# Entry
Amino acid sequence: MPINKNHEFEDLDGIKCAIVEKNAVKERVIFLKQILVHNHYTVVIVASPPPKAVPATAAPVALSEPSDEAAITIPAATQQLPPEPQTFTVGVTDVTFNPTNAIFGRSLKTPDGHIVTLAYWQQKEKESQDEIPYFDNNK
# Structure
């Protein structure tokens, strides 16, 4: 059991892993795997379980002509639902890994050698801009 929400771990495919991200789409998984493999982590990716479905109740439908049966029900199974987007859970086998500490501790590097910043990790920037930490700024 994790001590706090920021350091989750669980078994993925029978391997104890630190969770990097849950419910990630395919493009995000590719991005995360590229960074983590470059930083020498063993990445485990599994499909996220589908969300728990709430059983649909059958709704009565009134007939246009009056009859003995005032309403009939249509089974919920006949309703077409859009397919759920497939998401994945990304983990690393190093259970001491914590994504928050790795980003703010500046311990992750991009494949081109820059430090992974928060904006780059969240994919808000295409390239990681090495920022000088406030405590190293001699102004």
